[in-house]
């Protein structure tokens, strides 16, 4: 059975984000095919997709390598998230379905419950699920795709400190869902902007083997456009 390229892409991306495949490391198709138990065809397709997303670069005489983002690249990601997530929330207020609302409200209830029990690992997963669902509720595939890529890249470049008062974060998310449910696009946008900006300070750059100093530049010699 042929393994879909998107499954291989997901696996390679996850290994890049986790640091298993280090920044600057060569991505040989044959070695990756053996690693994931597939042929070279889906690996080649996956690498093209990951290059378009910015996780992989092609270097002359070397081939595909894991990208080496700079500190400025990392800072830009947080700024883009600050701009795009509020837009997604505003569109969600106009386009969400009852199914989206049901999931969002359920996640807020679970988040508040886990916060009371101080279950940090569950909270991180629930938070990711919440923001993914909010993006999907925007009914804008292009925007949803961009926000998904941003989340992956931010997880690659940043460690996130657990909030000292997680219940407050979930109260903020609950208020966002209320605005979305009422169809109040401007309030949903404003609350989401405040939420994203408030927790922006919890992001810490990971060690330098993932993010290079701003004085360096990503080596994209020979990279395809």
Written description of the protein model:
With 225 residues, this protein is mainly alpha-helical. It is 65% helix and 6% strand. The protein has a two-stranded antiparallel sheet with strand order 1-2. A two-stranded antiparallel ribbon has the order 3-4. A hairpin with a 3-residue loop joins β1 (56-59) and β2 (63-66). α1 (5-18) runs parallel beside α7 (141-157). The two termini are 32 Å apart.
Helix count, DSSP H or I runs of 4 or more residues: 9
- Strand pairing plus helix content: what structural class? mainly alpha
Regions with little confidence, pLDDT below 50 for 5+ residues: 214-225
Radius of gyration, whole Å: 19 Å
N-C termini distance? 32 Å
The largest beta-sheet arranges its strands as 1-2
| Element-by-element helix/strand order | HHHEEHHHHEHHE
Mean pLDDT: 88
Q: What helical percentage do the residues reach? A: 55-70%
Largest sheet: 2 strands, antiparallel
Shape: elongated
**Roughly what fraction of the amino acids lie in strands?**
5-15%
Total number of β-strand segments? 4
Short structural summary:
With 225 residues, the chain is mostly helical. The chain is built from nine helices and four strands.
Give short descriptive properties of this protein.
mainly alpha; 9 helices; 6% strand; disordered C terminus
Task: Outline the fold blueprint.
Elements: H1 5-18, H2 29-36, H3 40-53, E1 56-59, E2 63-66, H4 71-95, H5 98-117, H6 120-136, H7 141-157, E3 158-160, H8 166-182, H9 185-198, E4 203-205
